[in-house]
Design a protein that fits this description.
The complex is a heterodimer of chains A (about 850) and B (about 450). Chain A has about 850 residues and is mostly helical. Chain A is built from 35 helices and six strands. Among the domains of chain A are: about 110 residues, no CATH class; about 190 residues, no CATH class; about 150 residues, no CATH class. The longest helix of chain A has about 35 residues. Chain B is an alpha/beta fold and about 450 residues long. In chain B, about 30% of the residues lie in helices and about 15% in strands. Chain B has 13 helices and 18 strands. In chain B, the strands form five sheets. In chain B, strands 1, 5, 6, 7, 8, 9, 12, 13 and 16 form a nine-stranded mixed sheet that branches. Chain B has a three-stranded antiparallel sheet with strand order 2-10-11, with no helix packed on it. A two-stranded antiparallel ribbon of chain B has the order 3-4. Chain B starts with a helix and ends in a 14-residue tail after the last strand. The chains are: A mainly alpha (about 850), B alpha/beta (about 450). The interface between A and B is large, with 100 and 101 residues.
Chain lengths: ~850, ~450
């Protein structure tokens, strides 16, 4: 075969080697266009450019014609291929070799002929966009090793590369592994005993079936999905009190083995399904954006989560690597933009109506009370302001204070002594305290108060209807001279004692400002009685408000879908063409049809949850596989695009994807097939000969020893101490609550304030979709094990749980924690450590902090 | 799986480890490593003036503002978060200081006294005039959530020198406004590179109250040592049955380090161990104490310390720029004391101090109706000032300039990305090569931007 270098020489020296330029095109140009360019520059028209016909090249894209026949140097296409153009460098993944580029140059020099042939129909797609193939397990030499079809695919590769699989793990190791894996909890000692005693061939299958049927299974596996869904129980600002219904829904979906296609459809469109009532909580996923900026977030969660595609990368420009034009991003965005958030009450209508009515009554009374108090405060303040001169003179000892308010006088005294005033109006008084200065000051004060009232009234009028700061920012109101405002503030402002935004100098109340109870001593009886009456009304109304009804957070369609434009370079102020609401081009046959009525959520869900979608089944199979083996067949589980990893076992991936769909999208069937395989049962031991060839264990010749994830670790400690509360579902409690001994998945997940234990043990950031956890091994984790109150308490409970003589207690601890009996040396070490009764908790804690407890072989 | 020898070899080869860090979560991700090339700076102290300091009232004097006070801005009013009106002179007087004669306003008299050690970059820009995206840009190099913070990148690149303390420490009494903890997240980098947030609240002098899980309330040191010896014996036996597993070995070491960390952190975080004169130099504010803690940590080999001025967005003076008067003394004192103290200890050369807010403020007065005052300034992303000191940056110089009024950077304009690129350069990194492969692409602090500002590199 001719190497590229020889070809280059041949082409340069003797272009006539090719019988005709048409031949050159067919053998050297068309194949490159098809394999390197068509994914982005055929149907998807990235950069507005198609490269699938001569006319299309001549017409060019956004940057101009791609081709000038006869002039290779002047053709954008060649400039881009040579990587000489300032911006256009194609293909993006790497420059073609010189021979290929020369072929393009020759072809263009010869006038760029483009014969229409059947070959043009061939459009090889990137692997993940190709339909899932029907594959049969390959033949292998060691047929005895194959327990599940999965094994044939693994073993075939191992045999091909001459690698020998590690020996099988022991039965004790296996049951510990599969129990943690499927339920996130250690196996109970009785379960282990029963399994070890059961020599029948179905023993393992019986264990697996029992684990899969246990509610503990959903509590473990839902977490994988919740990581992807960036689920949390609050927002970066504000609360999300009923988000836990979504968590419970996901757990239930896993436990009921909800078909995965239904699982998808429910999350996008449960409200549009005829039988969707039970699944409304699924809709919460798209209300869970961490901040108000939801665009990028929802498209990202949708496409990375369900499709393993990074479509959000196409927000500002066509995707740099995948055939996703910006228009496609806005097509999906338009679907979400055509929805709004809605609360679905989880209470009878009457209860909801009663709550709302009572709540409104309370709000009204509170507002009346507040208004009245405010008015009284201001009136009292003005009344006192009109006596400023008297107070000042009295404060300076120049007048008698007999009929003045004591506290006000004290305040004046302090104020007149201050040196940090932000206005000049007391300078005359400071220089020469006396009646004249005092009276002039009083006049000024009264004038400033009048001015302030005028400004207030105007601003209220122009800002009518605007309540938030952002909106106010758009309104131009009247303002005051700074010095006068400072004077007003010193006398009459209500102090701003908290809050992040420091916009006011007034951290303390003005000296003439009284509110609440303190204002009342200035009031005549009648008004005081009125205030008391108002307060009583508020309290009565408060007592009548029933607890707020619970509700689901969901999305619903807007009455009219929006017309979403492409935002050129991601800038909403620069709208481009309209992006019809529809599915991704690369995953559609032909031009995807625009969605008609409503937002198009249901159509979108159907397009994702489809047997014809090449990504959906592959992506979920890979996620499940990754959880079982610690690495995916594709190691970038949320990116199956060009820049993602390539599958280590593509046939296996397709085989399992096909099986999943054939089984009615049953994830439990998939788990079963995987964990009952030989490859799953391998030991974590190294095999020296394999280390060199495949140190990464990409071909899965052994198991991966793994540290327990945060939730499993906490749950396992609680299980060991006998404290674990297995009640299911319901509102979350902080994990750090000393009394919280429920499974960790039911803990409160905060977007801003991650639980310290979760954070230490690699819980992912809940503000973006998380495709896998990155396990770390750092000292601060060990500080937790050594010193956290949680560990100390559970160690005490574990110690208290152990009964009998010292040896019996140690044996029991080993059975509970490690599913085995202690070796002689371990027994001796234990006995030596527990020589006094008080040492048992410290001993129990040492076991809980040991590597054997933390790691699963 | 990596063997221990692999890990040691990659440590010996310095930077080789970084590329491997992904598979190395379990290995020695915090081991100190060499950067791409030799560099002076080894530590970063990032003094975060959250809320946005006004450059035209602090380090970027604009005499024209005084001249045109109260008049419409001849350059127009570019779009900012809120509506602004006419130009407003700075109420604060500027004067020249030091050998360099750099002008500093009366808000920062102490910083002025060390100005010859400070590089004043007056032509910085950012993208968006709202707090959350601009704060993210300054901290994480992106306007959106989901990417690692500067401190995480630095710790990922260099590891840390003291294995008994966290590599990246964040000091903030309370939380900065949303996105809060996102400002020190490791995002997709391994969790060990996340900032350890410590609430340096004024009244807490006891490190055991500052740092969670630092002390065992039940066991004394001797009893805990015995317990640890038992754990070590069990772990050793466990490891013996599973030879060659580097992760188990790292786990064993982790436990030992944790034990030592208890004593080390008790010492490092205890300001009571400083002399009275040092404590007075830094001042008693949360921020001043944070600066002093930062020095103690850096001295002990912590890689990066990020000190926030305060919770919320304290510098955000929309209504009244005079409020800067209340905040400046603590910032001024902490910053100046830190520069002086590090210099005196010979640590300034290897410590890069970065003093910056997420944007500057408008030369025009804001005219929203809040608070009835029009004496404040809105956010200005088009041109603002940051300070750099130590770590191989030129002192006593101003770099770049804004226009006559302080609206736009015009001379040698730079972006936050460029400042980040420069900081990484000063630490010995080619910012385009300090990358992490995640979800199918290589990510870096500077996204796809950033050029080193050669003019400020000594």
């Amino acid at each position: 075969m001719t190497g590229p270098r020889t070809l280059l020489v041949l082409l340069a020296a003797a272009p006539a080697l090719w019988a005709s330029p048409e031949d050159l095109f067919e053998s050297r140009v068309r194949p490159v266009l098809a394999s390197q360019c068509s994914a982005c520059h055929a149907k998807t028209r990235m950069g507005g450019l198609r490269l699938d016909s001569r006319e299309a090249l001549l017409a060019g894209g956004n940057t101009g014609p791609a081709l000038v026949p006869g002039d290779p140097d002047g053709s954008l296409l060649v400039q881009a291929l040579r990587y000489e153009h300032a911006r256009l460098r194609m293909p993006p993944a790497g420059k073609l070799d010189a021979a290929a580029i020369t072929a393009f140059e020759e072809w263009i020099r010869a006038g760029a002929p483009w014969p229409e042939t059947a070959a043009a129909a061939a459009d090889p797609l990137f692997w993940s966009f190709q339909p899932v193939r029907r594959v049969e397990p390959p033949a292998v030499q060691d047929r005895k090793w194959v327990r599940s079809p999965v094994d044939a695919f693994i073993l075939a590769k191992l045999e091909e590369t001459g690698l020998r699989p590690a020996p099988f793990a022991g039965r004790r190791e296996w049951i510990r592994r599969v129990a943690f894996d499927l339920t996130g909890l250690p196996p109970a000692p009785e379960t282990v005993d029963a399994f070890l005693a059961d020599s029948s061939p179905e023993a393992a299958a019986r264990v697996v079936d029992r684990l899969l049927a246990s509610p503990r299974y959903g509590e473990r596996w839902a977490r994988m999905w919740l990581d992807l869904a960036r689920h949390a129980d609050d927002r970066l600002i504000g609360a999300a009190p009923y988000a836990w219904h979504y968590r419970d829904w996901v757990i239930r979906a896993f436990n009921e083995d909800m078909p995965y296609d239904r699982f998808i459809t429910a999350q996008l469109a449960a409200d549009l399904l005829p039988d969707g009532r039970r699944d409304l909580a699924a809709l919460t996923i798209f209300t869970e954006s961490p901040s108000e900026v939801t665009d990028d977030d929802r498209v990202d969660v949708l496409t990375r989560g369900f499709l393993g595609l990074t479509v959000a990368c196409a927000q500002c420009h066509d995707h740099k690597y995948d055939p996703v034009p910006t228009r496609d991003y806005y097509s999906l965005l338009g679907i979400f933009r055509s929805t709004r958030n809605r609360e679905i009450p989880l209470a009878p209508e009457a209860e909801v109506a009663a709550y709302r009515a009572r709540k409104k009554a309370l709000d009204d009374w509170q507002s009346d009370l507040k208004q009245y108090q405010l008015t009284e405060s201001m009136q009292v303040g003005e009344m006192l302001a009109a006596q400023s001169a008297r107070y000042m003179l009295a404060a300076a000892g120049m007048d008698d204070a007999a009929d003045l308010d004591r506290e006000t006088l004290d305040r004046w005294k302090r104020y007149l002594a201050r040196t940090d005033r932000q206005h000049p109006y007391l300078r005359a008084w400071d220089a020469a305290p006396g009646r004249k200065a005092a009276e002039e000051f009083q006049e000024l004060v009264l004038a400033v108060i009048r001015e302030k009232k005028g400004v207030d009234a105007y601003n209220r009028a122009v800002s009518l209807g605007f309540t938030t700061g952002m909106m106010l920012g758009k309104v131009v109101g009247r303002t005051m001279d700074r010095a006068k405002f400072m004077l007003w503030q010193d006398l009459l402002a209500e102090g701003n004692r908290g809050g992040g935004v420091v916009n006011s100098n007034a951290t303390e109340d003005g000296i003439l400002y009284y509110k609440g109870q303190t204002v009342e001593r200035f009031l005549p009886d009648q008004r005081r009685r009125h205030l008391d009456g108002l307060r009583a009304r508020v309290e009565a109304a408060r007592g009548e408000v029933p607890p707020e009804f619970p509700y689901l957070l969901a999305i619903e369609d807007l009455p009219e879908p929006v017309k979403q434009h492409v935002y050129v370079r991601g800038n909403p102020d620069n709208p481009g063409e309209v992006a019809p609401r529809r599915f991704l081009t690369v995953l559609s046959k032909g031009e995807p049809p625009a969605y008609g009525s409503g937002s198009g959520r249901l159509e979108l869900a159907r397009a994702i949850a489809s047997r014809d979608n090449p990504l959906t089944a592959r992506v979920i199979v890979n996620r499940i596989w990754q959880q079982h083996f610690g690495q995916g067949i594709v190691r970038t589980p949320s990116n199956f695009g060009m820049n993602g990893d390539r599958p280590s076992h593509p046939e296996l991936l397709d085989f399992l994807a096909g099986r999943l769909m054939d089984s009615g999208w049953s994830l439990k069937t998939l788990h079963r097939e995987i964990v009952l395989s030989s490859v799953y049962g391998l030991s974590a031991e190294g095999v020296a000969a394999n280390e060199r060839a495949d140190a990464d264990n990409r071909l899965l010749w052994r198991a991966k020893r793994r540290r327990l994830e945060a939730e499993s670790l906490r749950d396992a400690v609680l299980a060991a101490s006998g404290s674990l509360d297995l009640s299911e579902g319901g509102p979350p409690l902080p994990l750090a609550d000393p009394g919280n001994v429920r499974r960790s998945i039911y803990g409160f997940i905060s977007r801003g304030k991650t639980d310290p234990m979760l954070m230490l043990f690699d819980f992912p950031n809940p503000n973006t979709t998380a495709e896998q956890r990155v396990p770390t091994n750092v000292p601060s984790q060990r500080l937790f094990l050594l010193n956290a109150e949680f560990m100390l308490q559970q160690a005490e409970r574990l110690a208290a749980r152990l009964t009998g003589g010292p040896e019996a207690r140690i044996r029991e601890a080993y059975r509970l924690l490690f599913q085995r009996l202690p070796a002689e040396a371990e027994m001796e070490a234990g006995l030596a450590f527990t020589k006094s009764e008080g040492r048992w908790p410290a001993y129990a804690q040492a076991l809980l902090a040991s590597n054997e407890f933390l790691y699963v072989d | 799986m990596l063997t221990r020898r692999d890990i040691l070899r990659s440590v010996a080869n310095g930077f080789g480890l970084v590329g491997l860090a992904q598979t190395l979560g379990a290995g020695a991700p915090l081991a100190s490593r060499q950067p791409h090339f030799a560099a002076k700076a080894k530590h970063v102290i990032f003094l975060y003036m959250n809320g946005g300091v006004s450059h035209v009232d602090s380090f970027d004097p604009k005499p024209m503002l005084a001249k045109y006070d109260g008049q419409p801005s001849p350059l127009g009013n570019p779009k900012t978060e809120r509506k602004t009106g006419n130009l407003m002179a700075s109420p604060f007087a500027f004067s020249r200081h030091g050998q360099s004669g750099l002008e500093v306003s009366e808000l920062f008299p102490r910083a002025a006294s060390v100005i010859d050690d400070v590089c004043v970059v007056r032509s910085v820009t950012t993208d968006i005039p709202n707090h959350p995206p601009a704060m993210l840009m300054l901290s994480n190099g992106r306007n959106v959530l989901g990417t690692p913070s500067l401190g995480s990148w630095v710790t990922y690149g260099l590891g840390t020198e003291n294995q008994n303390l966290p590599g990246f420490v964040v000091l903030c009494p309370g939380k900065p406004i949303a996105p809060g903890a996102e400002l020190w997240t490791s995002a997709f980098l391994p969790g060990v590179y996340q900032g350890t947030h410590i609430q340096n609240v004024k009244d807490t002098d006891d490190p055991a109250r500052l740092i969670p899980f630092l002390r065992n309330p039940r066991l004394d040191a001797a009893a805990q040592r015995e317990q640890l010896d038992l754990i070590s014996r069990l772990n050793a036996a466990h490891h013996e049955m599973r030879p060659g597993d580097a992760e188990l070995e790292a786990s064993i070491q982790s436990m030992e380090i944790a034990y030592r960390m208890q004593a080390e952190a008790m010492d490092a975080f205890d300001l009571r161990k400083e002399s009275l004169s040092i404590r007075e130099a830094y001042g008693s504010s949360d921020f001043g104490r944070g600066c002093l803690l930062a020095r103690r940590l850096v001295e002990r080999g912590v890689r990066c310390v990020q000190v926030f001025y305060g919770a919320g967005q304290p510098w955000d003076h929309h209504a009244d720029i005079m409020m800067h008067q209340k905040l400046a003394p603590a910032a001024d004192q902490g910053f100046a004391a830190l520069v002086g103290d590090l210099k005196q200890r010979g640590l300034l050369d290897e410590t890069l101090i970065f003093f910056a807010g997420e944007f500057g403020r408008t030369p025009t007065a804001e005219i929203s109706v809040r608070q009835f005052l029009q004496n404040g300034r809105d956010h200005n992303p088009y041109g603002f000032t940051v300070l750099l000191a130590g770590g191989g940056v030129k002192g006593g110089m101003a770099y770049g300039a804004t226009d006559d009024f302080g609206w736009h950077a015009v001379d040698r304009k730079v972006h936050v990305h460029d400042v980040h690129a420069t900081m990484l350069h000063l630490l010995g990194f080619d910012h385009t090569r300090l990358t992490y492969h995640y979800s199918g692409r290589d990510f870096r602090l500077t996204d796809v931007e950033g050029e080193v500002i050669q003019g400020i590199v000594a």
